[in-house]
UniProtKB/TrEMBL annotation:
<protein>
    <submittedName>
        <fullName>ABC transporter substrate-binding protein</fullName>
    </submittedName>
</protein>
<feature type="signal peptide">
    <location>
        <begin position="1"/>
        <end position="21"/>
    </location>
</feature>
<dbReference type="InterPro" id="IPR039424">
    <property type="entry name" value="SBP_5"/>
</dbReference>
<feature type="domain" description="Solute-binding protein family 5">
    <location>
        <begin position="77"/>
        <end position="414"/>
    </location>
</feature>
<dbReference type="InterPro" id="IPR030678">
    <property type="entry name" value="Peptide/Ni-bd"/>
</dbReference>
<keyword id="KW-0732">Signal</keyword>
<dbReference type="Pfam" id="PF00496">
    <property type="entry name" value="SBP_bac_5"/>
</dbReference>
<dbReference type="InterPro" id="IPR000914">
    <property type="entry name" value="SBP_5_dom"/>
</dbReference>
Length: 495
């Protein structure tokens, strides 16, 4: 491991937030000298950087793993490792696999290798959420790959853009384990991972596209937001993910970029057991929450009050249909609830504190649970909490919100923290999933959003804006609302 990065990792693991800046090595200057880019990332890997988990988005942001299809700014599909595609009917799509691509282990990309990656993902347990409720059959012949869905799916090309469906060399797969180390196809090769502490990538000179300008990437995982901001302020990191709003005023404005995100801060209520099986008590929570206090107090105005699950990053979401009268709020009458969230996003513990006060003022008795995300996700999905505050990307996978809604709110959804199972919601989600791309699909998605909101299983509070920190000597880093890109082949350090 790069000696400066190793020292940085050890320091961040051991130091308090107030002491971080004093023990960081002089990494930024060294990185500029050798052309390597240092990044302080927010969340450590949750699943050993398996592409079948949310860790896939790290691999995408580092430009080490690639997909058959990419997305443009509007969410429309563009060529990736596939150069073109066509549909034979409503369920079958054929993709032509790019020629001349090699993986970091030296093997070549073929249609059969791409089929192997997709088949592995399609049969994984749990399946990547982009494939929730959608079985696929994959066949390779020559340089083409045919993907057949069990039902009509107009979004299949967009689905294949999900980083969780990255195409890796066959050597990446061993039993139940998938390793992206040395098995991607991007301009940077992942050469070393130190658990949840750091990662190292080198420029891959055999890349099929434009070669990377930077010599490599040195990543340190820094869950503490104050520490990430300190790394940017002291020059120890070149790029910093998710600068907390509380730290933004302490940094040079020229180093900050504020990006509206398709990300919503939402309170999920456990509808399966506990007090919130009662719709009237869920309505009482909705009535008690004052989102403006969160936007102005916690986010210092760097967020937008939520009108629904989908925010201003999707302008068409403003054309919402009128909704039925909401469920009347019941009397909490001292109902005891457990409110949980995680520390990885610096604002969320403070959001929990404000919500606790608002809910107690409404008559609830609140107990807080706050841990790192890696230590709390399993309990949240298992329904261990009555209420869970989640910062959730709404178009993360396919560029289309229907997949997120199905994952989070359908009876069979793999990320259903609210434990919601509602016939009307499932019917609306089904209509949205099969609707044609364009205005028809957008209207169906908004109808599904209304059905979800009518249950009060999820109470959207605010839409976030991400603040990315780039040192002034960083050129051409990506500012991506979908959080798929960060360091690209064009990203480099200037003198």
């Amino acid at each position: 491991m790069h000696p400066h990065r190793s020292a940085l990792s050890a320091c961040l693991a051991a130091a308090s937030a107030l002491a971080v800046a004093g023990c960081l090595p002089d990494g930024g200057a060294d990185a500029a000298d050798d052309g390597r880019i240092s990044i302080a990332m927010m969340q450590p890997p949750r699943s050993s950087l398996s592409p079948l988990s949310d860790d896939a988005f790290k691999l995408s942001r580092w430009s080490t793993a690639e997909t058959l299809v990419t997305l443009d700014e509007d969410g429309d599909p563009l060529p990736g490792l596939a150069t073109e595609w066509s549909s034979a009917d409503d369920t079958t799509w054929t993709f032509t696999v790019r020629d001349g691509v090699t993986f970091h282990d030296g093997t070549e990309l073929t249609a059969a290798v791409a089929a192997h990656s997709l088949e592995y993902a399609a049969r994984a347990t749990p399946a990547p959420r982009i494939l929730d409720g959608l079985a696929l059959e994959i066949e390779a012949e020559g340089d083409t790959l045919t993907v057949t869905a069990e039902r009509e799916d107009p979004l299949l090309p967009q689905r294949l853009s999900s980083p969780q469906l990255s195409i890796l060399a066959e050597s990446a797969y061993s039993g139940d384990t998938v390793s992206p180390v040395g098995t991607g196809s991007g301009p940077f090769e992942l050469v070393e991972v130190d658990g949840t502490t750091s990662a190292r990538l080198d420029r891959y000179d055999g890349y099929w596209g434009e070669p990377a300008l930077a010599a490599g990437i040195d990543v340190t995982f820094v869950p503490d937001g104050t520490a990430r901001a300190a790394a940017l302020r002291t020059g120890e990191a070149d790029i910093v993910e998710s600068v907390p709003t509380s730290q933004a005023s302490l940094l040079d404005p020229d180093t900050l970029t504020e990006v509206p995100m398709p990300r919503t801060n939402t309170l999920y209520l456990n509808t399966e057991e506990g007090p919130f099986t009662d719709p009237a008590l869920r309505a009482a929570v909705r009535a008690a929450i004052d989102p403006r206090a969160l936007v102005d107090g916690v986010y210092e105005g760097r967020a937008d009050v939520a009108e629904g699950l989908l925010g201003p990053a999707l302008p068409w979401a403003a054309e919402r249909p009128e909704r039925d009268e909401p469920t009347p709020a019941g009397d909490p009458d001292g109902a005891a609830i457990t409110l949980a969230t995680f520390t990885d996003r610096a604002e969320l513990p403070e959001v929990a504190t404000v919500l606790e006060q608002q809910l107690e003022d409404a008559g609830f008795e609140v107990r807080q649970v706050v841990r790192e995300y890696a230590d709390i996700e399993e309990d949240a999905l298992a329904g261990e909490f009555d209420a869970f505050i989640l910062s959730r990307a709404t178009v993360l996978d396919s560029g289309d919100p229907a997949a997120y809604m199905t994952s989070d709110f359908s009876c069979e959804g793999s990320f259903n923290i609210a434990r919601l199972c509602d016939e009307d919601v499932d019917a609306a989600l089904s209509e949205a999933e099969k609707a044609s791309v364009g205005d028809e699909r957008r209207a169906a998605i908004l109808a599904a959003e209304a059905a979800i909101l009518d249950t009060d299983a999820a109470i959207p509070m605010l839409h976030e804006r991400v603040i990315q920190g780039d040192a002034t000597h960083v050129a051409d880093s990506a500012k991506d609302p979908r959080e798929r890109l960060l360091v690209t082949p064009l990203t480099h350090l200037t003198p």
